[in-house]
Design brief:
0% of the residues lie in helices and 53% in strands. The protein has 119 residues and is mainly β.
Length: 119
């Protein structure tokens, strides 16, 4: 399993960014996938989740109505569109999958992409 996140950067408050996460090494269309984020000195926080076919999504309260998670199963790619960004959204953003490997449940993470919201 491999995730490569990209699309992060520096944006002013109120601005927008769209993150992408390219997945490989597993059957992407079979699994729920998550976005998490981690700010300096803080625990990693769950942000959003999407079902295998993209028909169900869920968000942490602080990003509802501002962030949209989506996926393209033909491209094995996950997205996170972020609007009306706030300084408190600054963090490293990660793709995440939990999958049973035949013995136990295993967490898989990408390397992350940095989002900085600042004027």
């Amino acid at each position: 399993v491999q995730f490569v996140e990209y699309g992060g950067g520096l944006v002013q408050p109120g601005g927008s960014l769209k993150l992408s996460c390219a997945a490989s090494g597993f059957t992407f269309s079979r699994y729920f996938i998550n976005w998490y984020r981690q700010a300096p000195g803080q625990e990693r926080q769950w942000v959003a989740r999407i079902s295998a076919f993209g028909d169900n999504t869920d968000y942490t309260d602080s990003v509802k109505d501002r962030f949209t998670i989506s996926r393209d199963n033909t491209k094995n790619t996950l997205y996170l569109e972020m609007k009306n960004l706030k300084p408190e959204d600054s963090a490293i953003y990660y793709c995440h999958l939990v999958r049973y490997n035949g013995v136990k449940m295993v967490d898989y993470w990408g390397q992350g992409t940095q989002v900085t919201v600042s004027s």
